[in-house]
């Protein structure tokens, strides 16, 4: 079976952007307004040379009845991740910094027996990398700073994922 990698995190941290960036094409809807992703987004990531393949899942905004109920969205993401993922990408936003909902997501992942990679997104410039330090404890030691818009650290992130499949 093809291993599954689930992207989780509070709204607007860049989950759908990360999904599209890793997929190399625009599949998920990226929007400035929170809670916009409506469909289950799944795609196959494959690299012939490196000989790996995994299914990537954007869990954000799935099946929310009430788009204002962010807690329900996050709960649903975690449920999906727990039910399907071999590796979890916990996405945070270094520009807004740590928010209570980030704490909630991390808390819900804490007991899980699956690798969790902390993806500190929106580190658009190298000097912003140190902003990620406040999220350190979420990562269980595995953390990477990226920028989906500035194309920073994509291959390093892929390497971290593939090592854990
Ligand atoms: P989601 O709700 O977690 O799926 O987040 P989206 O992928 O829809 O992105 C939310 C907003 O963050 C959009 O306006 C994106 O353009 C923006 N965004 C995503 N990645 C980056 C990044 O690396 N740097 C910056 N500056 N903005 C980003
Ligand atoms: Mg989204």
TrEMBL record:
Residues reported to bind GTP 1: 9-16, 58-62, 121-124
Residue ranges occupied by any EngA-type G domain in the UniProt entry: 3-165
Taxonomic superkingdom: Bacteria
Subunit annotation: Associates with the 50S ribosomal subunit.
Known function: GTPase that plays an essential role in the late steps of ribosome biogenesis.
Family affiliation: Belongs to the TRAFAC class TrmE-Era-EngA-EngB-Septin-like GTPase superfamily. EngA (Der) GTPase family.
Name the UniProt record assigns to this protein: GTPase Der
Lineage of the organism: Bacteria, Pseudomonadati, Planctomycetota, Planctomycetia, Pirellulales
Span of the entire protein shown here: 2 to 166 of 450
């Amino acid at each position: 079976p093809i291993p599954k990698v689930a992207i989780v995190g509070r709204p607007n941290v860049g989950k759908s952007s990360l999904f599209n960036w890793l997929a190399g094409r625009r599949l998920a809807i990226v929007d400035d307004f929170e809670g916009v992703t409506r469909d289950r987004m799944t795609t196959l990531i494959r690299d012939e040379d490196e000989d790996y393949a995994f299914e990537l899942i954007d869990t954000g905004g799935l099946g929310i009845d009430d788009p204002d109920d962010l807690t329900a969205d996050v709960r649903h993401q975690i449920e999906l991740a727990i039910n399907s993922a071999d590796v979890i990408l916990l996405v945070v936003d270094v520009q807004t910094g740590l928010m209570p909902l980030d704490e909630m997501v991390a808390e819900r992942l804490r007991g899980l027996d699956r690798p969790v990679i902390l993806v500190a997104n929106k580190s658009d410039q190298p000097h912003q990398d140190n902003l990620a330090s406040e999220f350190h404890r979420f990562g269980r030691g595995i953390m990477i700073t990226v920028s989906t818009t500035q194309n920073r650290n994509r291959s390093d992130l892929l390497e971290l994922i593939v090592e854990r499949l």
